[in-house]
Each structure stands twice: as C-alpha cells, then as structure tokens.
Amino acid sequence: MIRFKKTFLVLLFSLSGLLFFQSAQAWAQNDEEAIRELLEQRDDEIKELMGSKGTEYTQEQREKLKNIINGIIDYRAMARYALEDTYNELSEDERDEFVDLFSTIIRDQSLNKLDIYRAKVKYEEISVDGSEAEVRTIAQLENVRTPVGYKMKYTDDSEWVVTDMIIDDVSTADSYQRQFQKIIRQKGYDSLLETLRKRAAR
C-alpha cells in the first residue's frame, strides 16, 4: 500500500510538471504570435499610409507616420538605459522632460529615410523568455537585405513594447548610451540636456 502511494505521488508530480511545461510552452507560443501580429500590423499600417513611391506627405500624414512607427517604443526604458546612474539622480519632472525631448528626437529621425519602411520583412525568429522577448527579422528593399532586431518587454499594461532596435547589428539603445555618456563625462548632464533641447527645437 505504501509503495502504491509513493508510485501514485511520483506519477502525480510528473504529470503536474508536464502540464506546467506544456502550459508554459503554450503561453510562449501565444506571446510569439501576439508579437508577430503587433509588428505585422504596424508594418501594414505604415505601408498603407505611405502609398506609392514618390508620394508627398502632408504634415498631418507625417504626424500619423511618426505615431505608427514609434507607437510601440518604450522611450522611458531607452532613456533610463542611455542615462545610466544619472537617471536616478533626476527628479520626476526632470526625467519627464528628458524623455519628452528624447522621444521627440527619435520620432523626427524616424522620417529621415521613409523608403526603408517599404522593405519586405521576413521574420527569422521570435523568442520569448518570461516578460522579455527578442525578434530577428530580415528587411529586404530591392536587392539590399538588412538584419533588423527588436528587444521587447511585456508591460504592466498588458502589452508588448520595444526597448531597443538593432539595425545591421548596431543597437540603437547602445548608440545613444555611448553618445550621452560621453557628453555627461566631458561636459555634464546640463550640457546634454541643452543639446537635446536644441535638436528637438529644429
């Protein structure tokens, strides 16, 4: 009888572990599908709004493009990463100003080369690890193939957002971090803030 109970408990725990593993797999697969749908919908909306090559855009259309292109980016996460310890030294109002300037610059830069958004996107891999995910794609425009990757996280608002974009193996977050830290080391944070204010006002 005792041996039967032990065998039953071992079997029960084994089945529980298997069910948990299958459940985790299912959640990961659902997240992968959700991320792919999110990025594909964004891509479709951009292409539809852009229209045919050579189209001239109104200011309203340009603002819509900015919103679609950048709508899934977590600017605060990128700003915190770029500023490193300096971010923790700022007041809430100072952080808000920095994030606002930072996002304005990124949004404006996103329209510099609109043709890249006409590229055909192939999804190579979407991997989910808890509340974080990485996406690898290949964007092909005519005969040029460019690897484009995304680092993403799942927020408290139950949505996936982008925390970094890796284009041709170059991390956007790392690039800003190097630029900002160099200015902070050489001239201080106030100098960096003034530089961003000027760039955002252009």
UniProtKB/TrEMBL annotation:
Taxonomy, superkingdom: Bacteria
InterPro entries assigned to the protein according to its UniProt record, in alphabetical order: MlaC/ttg2D (IPR008869), Tgt2/MlaC_sf (IPR042245)
Signal peptide: 1-28
Keyword Thylakoid tagged: no
Alphabetical keyword list: Signal
Keyword Hydrolase among UniProt keywords: no
Name used for this protein in its record: Phospholipid transport system substrate-binding protein
